[in-house]
Specification:
Helix Hairpins; 4 strands; elongated; 4-stranded mixed β-sheet; alpha/beta
């Protein structure tokens, strides 16, 4: 008896919410999950060698946070940066594909389509900003760089054997100029 009552209430709830809202909620959950997984892979606190890369290097405060690194062979560094960029692009492509399916679905309402288009636009803007940051940081003399923007914070991974305060300031300035993110919300990780 209780199961029949629950089933009836659940079916009533589903009819009130509607198919399009379930699609939108699913797309939002998928995008959020993709961003979290990407960030977890990108900024994991421990590397294969067991060194804690999120440990502060003593340069906090107004110029942002930096983390220490150990020296790794050049091939490992190159493959690290390449794999992070490929994983990030794959995750975003999947998210855009889901959003595009909402836009292309004829049964989606105009509101759902507009929300999906707004999310696609937002992702495209973030991707362009990250690419600009990476290009400008590499232009400052760093061999490799990956930028990840998540809301009002940014994580920047650079190939370096030791950052000096002037380099940290350059990175913070580039991120602030391109994304408007304050230096206190920028994490710089040396790889």
């Amino acid at each position: 008896m209780k199961f029949e009552n629950f089933k009836e209430k659940f079916m009533s709830f589903c009819k009130r919410v509607g198919k399009r809202n379930f699609i939108i909620a699913g797309a939002v959950v998928l995008i959020a999950t993709a961003v979290v997984v990407n960030f977890a892979v990108f900024a994991s606190s421990k590397d294969d060698d067991g060194f804690d890369y999120n440990q502060s290097a003593g340069m906090n405060g107004d110029i942002g946070e930096t983390t220490a690194s150990t020296t790794t062979p050049a091939a490992d560094v190159d493959s690290y940066f390449s794999s992070v960029q490929i994983n990030r692009q794959r995750t975003r492509d999947e998210a855009i594909e889901v959003l595009q399916s909402v836009v292309d679905n004829q049964s989606s309402t105009e509101t759902a389509k507009n929300e999906a288009l707004a999310e696609i636009n937002k992702l495209a803007t973030v991707m362009e900003t990250e690419a600009n940051i990476e290009t400008l940081i590499i232009a400052k003399g760093f061999e490799e760089c990956v930028a990840v923007i998540s809301g009002e914070s940014a994580s920047i991974v650079v190939s370096s054997d030791g950052l000096i305060p002037a380099q940290i300031s350059q990175i913070n300035e580039i991120v602030y100029q391109q994304a408007g993110i304050l230096p206190v919300n920028i994490t710089i990780i040396e790889r």
